[in-house]
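pipeline/complex-builder :: batch 7 item 3
reading input block
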Amino acid sequence: MSGRSRRVLVTGLGTFWGGRVAQTLEADPEVDVIVGLDTTEPTVELERTEYVRVDANYSILARIVRAAQIDTIIHTFLVVDPTQMSARAMHEINVIGTMNLFAAASAPASTVRNVVVKSSTIVYGCSASDPVWFKEDTPSSRPARRGVERNLEAVEGYVRDFAQDNPHVNVSMLRFANVIGAELETPLTRALELPLVPSLAGFDPRFQFVHEADVIRSILFVLDQNLAGVFNVAGDGLLPWSEVAQLCGKRTAPLPPIGTSLITGPLAQLGLVDLPEEYLQLLRFGRGVDNSRLKDFGFRYQYNSVQAVEAFIEAVRLRNTIGTGQPTYRYERDVEQFFRHSPAVIRD
Amino acid sequence: MDGGTSDDERLKQAVDAPVSRSLVPVPVVEAASDQDEASVDGRRSDVDEWGRSASMRALARRIYDPIYSKWFRVEWEGLENIPTEGGALLVANHAAAIPSDAPVIMHGIETELGRPVYGLADNFFKRVPVVGTLWSRLGGLPAHPDNAYRLLKEQGQLVLVFPEGSKGPAKPFNERYQLRRFGRGGFVEIAMQAGVPVVPIAVVGAEESMPTLFRLPHLASFIGAPYVPVTANMLALGPLGVATYFPAKFKLRVLEPVTFNVPPDQERYSRSRVMDWSEAIRDRIQNALYDMLRNRRSVWFG
């Protein structure tokens, strides 16, 4: 990458994003060192990434950054799916984790020169007074009220402060639209896999999607091009929710638009449909973001919104037919240590 | 979905893509560039990025045409003032409890000139189930400056806006044809930024199609609506009057386009200039209305 070696720290190695990014970086000869942090073990096979188990808010981070002379941080460990954990745990990971990360990165004599943060377009909120397309500098239409949105606001605040205090560091923040693809599971993909796709009666808002491959590519792109600033990452095109369901070959099951949570609450309790507030609001008003800024720098999307949804549903069909197939990888500490450090292993 | 070999290939790609190592030297231009074709392919509906659907619009035109030509008997004057290509901001006076002027203008221009018109309106619509979706499919969108700018500047479309906002249709019948304040002149600023002309339109007839007798402000604030009117139609026709217009004769006069001699895309424009223009456009519409009313012999027959 850009002519010199890198020493990279990836947060959230155990998550889908962290694992994928690390895997991709491993193939790059100019990346010398990859250190991956997470509370859980990696779920994908990694050859030379060093995995370090940390607690949710990274208290030993400053030591790692100093010891490994990290120059590039890729912060993917932000939870934007509120169904996965309690609001408190999410706050701990998103807000406190990011705070500690930047505290470590801005320590005196820090070697960090590049930071990429994976944020989400959830930060724009979702309300009736939104513009059809959010630009990177469009403020959200009303103050954030819900968990993820407020978390991301705080996170982005830390990112901005860090960028301001450290003008010598390239800080870029990517805001991803609804990510969809063959593997990732989100509240939206779960909704689209149901026999009937939930919707709100009388509403048919427009959705924008980005394919998971484009997410990884965009992270590496900003790193490669040394871009700084905020970028929306979303495929071209806005699709009405009914059309998304149609693309998936499903019918919609309209929920009452008033008192929706009276219905969705029990449904979530039964484990049928788990649509958190953020997503119910999205089913009411939708959200579109302007992706031209990153495109102006030369980034090309492989998938537009339609293609991303199609790739998703094709993978679902395959999975439904042949099952999940591949044996899932399990991280074994001793095995990994052997391959990485034993003198018996011949490395070239 | 579409069968054939490409299907298998794409499926394989989709499954393999995230794991693939070929992602690494990040391609700057290499990746697929046939985005425009692809975005047309694969779509299952014709809903555009603004939510407008050409087929829904065509259906609505068929249904609405008798109302337009038989009920309101719409007559236009000065249609040649509307540009046949490129962006322009249409600005009109606003009236009737459920505004009857927006559909008339949109339908008229679409049928006469064959150009789509996007109507900006209060986002209250967007919050009402069914109504909000229909409104969006028929070419309505929330009045946000970004929306107007993109439509006018980047896509060269016709955009209709009522600068009086909800103050226009909310006014009682005895103040008919008295234009309200034109907001804060935001429409002038947008037109300046986008570098497009403003085309003023004076509408006569809408006021009498559904006159507001009085308003229920408490109910309005309770349900979060901009206003709740009690109309003459309700008193005359009962429940039917909620959605039935009186057959007032509609006359519309399109005035000379106003162009601004300022460079586009400025962060800000001189406030005094914006307000002067806003006031000037308001005056032109007001004077045109007086002129049209002076020559009107009958509310019902024009």
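note: Chain A touches chain B through 59 residues (CB under 8 Å).
queue -> next item
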